[in-house]
Fold these 4 entries.
Entry 1:
Amino acid sequence: MSLALRALLDRGSFRLDVDLEIPRDGVTSLFGRSGCGKTTLLRIAAGLEKVRGAEVRFGDQVWQRGRRFVPLHKRRIGLVFQEHSLLPHLSVRGNLLYGYKRTPRAHRRLHLREITDMLGIGELLDRPIDRISGGQRQRVSLGRALLTSPQLLLLDEPMAALDTQTKREIMPFLSRMAGEAGVPIVLVTHAPDEVERLADRVVLMRDGRVERSEPLRQALARPDSPLFADEGAASVLEGRLGPANEHGLRPFGPEGARLWLPADDAWPAGQQTRVRILARDVSLALDDPRRISIQNHLKVQVERIDAPRAGRCLVATRLHDRQLLLAEVTPWAVEQLALRPGTQAYALIKSVALMG
């Protein structure tokens, strides 16, 4: 079962030529630079853009084919854009319930209490829209979309209009929503950190075409991944957080691949989460460096060594739990340590970012 999109569109210098299937589960990110066709493709899926000859199917539902065209309001889709479209004359509660009341009772799967708990907006219910922050407004927009009990949620750059601090505040709520809502999500973004934090799969777009469609782990395993264009290669590890110890550090991941992170009460113990580690923040050693201030050093096995780029080699290693950890070292270090596939080593991790 999938969302199938097929479209050919010419608009002057822009040409969209796509034939794509997206699984109906988890979060799929349409990723690429501005102008590559991400939003146009999303609008075709939603029925906001009627393109002659396009074909759109969602499971066994045909939304567009030939002369058949199902309008947006009959597709049962939730939409959230860069700018919120909340109704200013209604309170937060009124906005949240606007679509809920118009959803047939038989289709209502999600309800007010669970959505306000999920998005942390319960205390805002009686406030006017102009009395809440930009990040809170986006959370209300997400809640309103979810309360229509959609069969598909489409998010078009939902954090692009937010400043850095507000984006940092809303990301945990968006991450929680993606994990708990039980609705397949298609996320349009040009921000690698949003993909790494939220996506299960990535559709890489360029100049109106799909270059690749693959699981996030596969996208992060390639040294030439477009996700690395801004900050360089990075690893995204998944695991559960434990409670803080007497030193104020929280364990992440299973024994044998355990990291220690600074205490942060925003994430409860036992929650499945992700951390991001830049390859340039990982060094390699052949011996376990016990007498060192770096707290996180894990035993790894070298899987692959990529050819040098800009004087650095990307070394792909596997942790005890088989997750991929990338390290960036010099060709001289590769030679000195005699690194090759199969080499047992220790990864020294200087910085870890909790992603939620």
Note: The chain has a mean pLDDT of 92.
Entry 2:
Amino acid sequence: MIFLNAFIVGGLICVIGQLLLDVGKLTPGHTLSALVVSGAILDGLGLYEPLIDFAGAGATVPITSFGNSLVHGALQEAEASGMIGIITGIFQVTSAGISSAIIFSFLAALIFKPKG
């Protein structure tokens, strides 16, 4: 059942993104931003964690999870460190993922010699 929940929730997030592209005529950048902001808003309202508990990877793999991570880290650190925690929490939670994306992209570019 866990796999079915992950498939359905992840698929619905992707369907929303595809509808924003096709029906809403949004650019890929606008669609990406809309999904990140929606994940951030859902976390701010306390609705994204129950979605993760229900769907697992179906909610943590799509880009909405990045917005969730940003807000979740900021709120956690704000409670511990005050206003400065809002900034440090964002970097603390997301730095590993962003750093690994940069490093692996660089290595892939060295290995596969991308064109222009």
Note: The chain has one domain: 2-112.
Entry 3:
Amino acid sequence: MREFTGAELAKRIGQLLVSLFVLLVFTFVIGRVLPADPVGAVVGELADPAAYAAMRARLGLDLPLLQQFWIYLTSLLHGDLGTAILTGNPVTKDLGEAFPATLEVATLAIILSTLIGVPLGMLAAFFRDTWIDRTARVVALVGHSIPVFWFGIVGLVIFYATLNWVGGPGRVDVYLEGLVEPRTGLLLVDSLLAGDTETFWNAVHHIILPASILAYSAMAYITRMTRAFTLEQLNQDYVVAARAKGASNGRIILRHLAPNIAVQLVTVLAISYGALLEGAVVTEIVFSWPGIGQYMTNALMIGDMNAILAGTLVIGVIFMALNFLSDLAYLVLDPRTREVRA
């Protein structure tokens, strides 16, 4: 055995870079094999052949495939993801404006789902086969089975249209749009930095329903996995010994169970967070949320390949980064993983 060193860290970073290169190849191939016609999306279906050929040459689609990939790769290294047909802006600018909205609602959702799902899963395991366990399993099953868009529509009908407890579609009411300077892109943060409490509470009013809908789907998965991890640990000798010594359930959870399931939960939470950032597409459409999901959907409708591939690339990079960070978290939460086989 040997201690975990910088060389091992470099190896993991190298694996991350290889995965990133594979993702780049994958997105490039998708852009070339899909039936969508990027040239037709620019010049229109009724353009004459000369204009069509000129635009094809301008986009570099008349070049050999390997040369096209090299141009694609070098452009990415310079931060150039192309120009969006949908808006006429650089794709990087559009994504920079759209992604914070997705990040905001997904982050709030993962916080809510963790605060509810982890304790609920532990309670279900501690009181196995009781009404608490059965209730937790039913709640998790419903959240896992029913589509998010159905929850979103029902939520809008009940809590917005009928009870008026939450805000409607969008991040804020129309009369408040554009009043807060976008410093971070996170409206809740920006409104607080600007001291605009009216916009802040209005944004809270709007975000609570889509975040709760997303949180419920993630909570279902987190609850099930936490219950499984806890049940596995409850059968271990150290828990039996702690109970024999008269330790309370609270002490067993805080001193014994939580540290031992934390490593496994890191992966679950990382996967859930990535899924929320990706799965926000449907929620953003239902709630007219101006995030990356709605942006990609609108781009897909008109065959805007630059926007579609850039969004796919961003989501893929996020997943890889979360997995990489969860691996690093292992080293902090479980010292045993700091040793690897020589």
Note: The chain has a mean pLDDT of 81.
Entry 4:
Amino acid sequence: MIEMKVAGIALDAVTRSPIVLLRDFTERRALPIYIGNDQAKAIINAIENQAPPRPLTHDLLVNMLEAWGMTLERIVIHSLQDNTFYASLTVVQGDVKKEIDARPSDAIALALRTNCPIWVLEEVIADASIPVDRDADEAERQEFRDFISSLRPEDFTQRGKFSSEEAQ
């Protein structure tokens, strides 16, 4: 799993639909997730630390977690099926831990309000992320190619043979 952070909210240029953009901590990969308008507002409010005069849905859920002595340990965006992302909340109460299915947009809105980490499975990032720093990606690929081309067969042989006494 790779920990990600919310880079911001954008609008799709064609559909004008909101997109939450997650970015890894190396600033190398970004994961765009289309979300609804209400969830976009909830995420923006959390990013800007805006507290509504009365609790909205995500604030209410956080209040309920706190009232029942529960903490949101983490959220995980764990799959992408038919262009739909799936997430889960890990909620802890004492020594009891529960996984709860959630839409990624709602999970992100809750994570921002509770300062819990946002994790994404590598498979999801491989399938749906976009490169942020193409130059760094190409430099990494070239460095790997250079490493591979410098390998010799003897680099794979066992170093330091054991005597028969050491092997026993």
Note: The helical segments are 37-47, 57-67, 104-114, 122-128, 134-150, 164-167.
